[in-house]
From TrEMBL:
Family classification: Belongs to the HAK/KUP transporter (TC 2.A.72.3) family.
Name of the protein described by the UniProt record: Potassium transporter
Transmembrane intervals: 67-88, 158-179, 199-217, 224-246, 272-291, 303-323, 343-370, 391-413, 425-448, 455-474, 480-498, 519-538
Protein role: Potassium transporter.
Organism encoding this protein: Vitis vinifera (Grape)
Amino acid sequence: MSPTPSEESIEQEISQQNVKRVSCTTVLTLAYQSLGVVYGDLSTSPLYVYKTTFSGKSSLHGNDEEIYGVLSFIFWTFTLIALFKYIFIVMSAADNGEGGTFALYSLLCRHARLSILPNQQAIDQKLSAYAMERSADTRQSFVMKSVFEKHPKFRQGLLIFVLLGTCMAIGDGILTPAISVLSAVSGVQLKITELHENHVVLISCVILVVLFSLQHYGTHRVAFMFAPIVTAWLLCISGIGIYNILRWNPHIFCALSPTYMLKFLKSTGIEGWISLGGVVLSITGVEMMFADLGHFSALSIKIAFTVLVYPSLILAYMGEAAYLSRHHEDLQRSFYKAIPEAVFWPVFIVATFAAVVASQAAISATFSIISQCCALNCFPRVKIVHTSQKISGQIYIPEVNWMLMCLCLAVTIGLRDTNMMGHAYGLAVTTVMLVTTCLMAMVMIIVWKLQIFTAVAFLVFFGSMELLYISASFCKVPEGGWIPLALSLIFLTVMYVWNYGTLQKHQFDAENKVSMNRILRLGPSLGMVRVPGIGLIYTNLVTGVPAVFGHFVTNLPAFHQVLVFVCVKSVQVPYVCEKERFLISRVGRKEHSMFRCIVRYGYKNLQQENYDFENTLVSELVQFVEKEKESGLGPITEESSREFGNLDIEALGASEQTFNDPSHEENSVQSSHDIQVMKSGDEQLENSLPNEESLQILKARESGLAYILGHSHAKAKKSSSIVKQVAIDFVYAFLSRNCRGPDVVLNVPHTSLLEVGMIYYV
């Protein structure tokens, strides 16, 4: 019985379709839909950019030269970073149609062996999503690869750097709802002057609570409204911008000259430099353009940005600057003041809805980031709920959702000021962009094989701009900038300690696995009573027999008729299709009835609660046994594996069967659902009948399956440093006790679960 298609296959198909040529109508449709998902955060920036920029001492001046200078900075920052860097360059570095920090890191891991995932295999490189252009290394790419491959500390440093950008992106997901909703709601004070600030904060908190409370329903139920809302918002602010330009200052176009940036810095000095921390808020959300690439196509996102988003936002900023040039007294409330009286309330309502859309996009992106971190062993296990069976990436994480809500409410109530939120927001945004710039420079050298001069020019040009804004944002640390730093430090500690503890656990398992020679000496029954049924032993190892098996049989010398060592692992690709998910191997000789099943997922794949794993696994085992019979070689023992080594299986007429390197203990066969053996006459009849071992597996399936999981506890050695003892004995132990258990993540039936307790010292 073939398994029911799960969401992973749909995700894979969508991801593959995104990178193919599509019709003009499809591209335009995707471009329209991307407005609601990708550009919500970016399009709401005009609500608070000028207000935050002029929140310092420079607001005491507010003359035309300063306003022109700020507009010039906004225009060139938006043009160079958002348009040239992200749209024209970074968008080209997609990983099988996926974007974001992890996509760049994944590309580098595959091309330069930077992966920190411990159980990777050479056969993983045969995955269709793993395809790489095998171009010759340049001298620069070879040197850079060698440096990272020879120095593990450099790989760890790169991991920490990537995690820092990831933590700042999570901080973005906390700050975006707070600043967007509070900025939108605060505009009502212009019409209802008696409304106290506490009431504005209360209304904002109510909206945030409702927003987070509705997350478990999934965004697909209201997503159809997102694109019209953002489209209406962009048309509103661009129309108001044109109105303000024509009415207040038609010569505002002169401010686009870069000379006004120099005049601004010259006249304002240090205060002008510090105020650049507000200017950078104009490009908040550009990272989301790249991160959400997998939901659409690169072409559709580029069209939406260049045709509507870019001109609308530029007109909005120019119109607001034109209004400010004639109303210096309105620097702290310029956006709503610049709205014509006749359309104020409609624009206010659209602004509130647009802020909710921006918040939703940031929350959904945070869920996606956490899910990817879990897949790469960089975040404790959490419950991931799939809210849509059709839309890729629509997930809900309860623990993270309520954590985000509490932090958003704390920021909103604690700061109560969009200026201070803007200072925190700017530091988080610029840090993520700098991480992307550095990773892109490495991609240019290692993946694209460009000359080092090109990569250095890219790094220096864009990196210097981002460092300028980071330095300005750092000056605002006492005024709110400390928030993303504190949050990032907490998340970074959690991620790194969890990753370190997980790697140490895998190292312990690898060093203490049961010797294959010992298994072979035990005879066909392995020295135990073999009871009917199939025993599934979950392990992190892709080779050898795990120590949990030896620990189990030592205390209970009986086991199931068929043993399967199951390893669920992630690989450095975004998706693994179902046809390539299972990798079946035989452990030991045929009479042992021991197998290994490696289940491979991409870092954006999602495990399904309704996935028929048991029947699929049995089907894969039967296919493996049948194909082993068809190969004509019979059962392959460890000794014959060493004799055969790597064989040309196509010459044997079984193109799906592959054998590992002679140093390996197992012989691997990659299974497929599409294999059909077409023969005629007696030969067809003979091969259509299942062999004895297949019947044995099916009979064992009828007797039932048992799941055996190791319940291990980490302890730091007494000789370890104090830092390591605190990290392992307290932080990692606390996270292990309070995160989701592996049985929950793997959807193991509790009625069939056996746990084996172990303690390992690191």
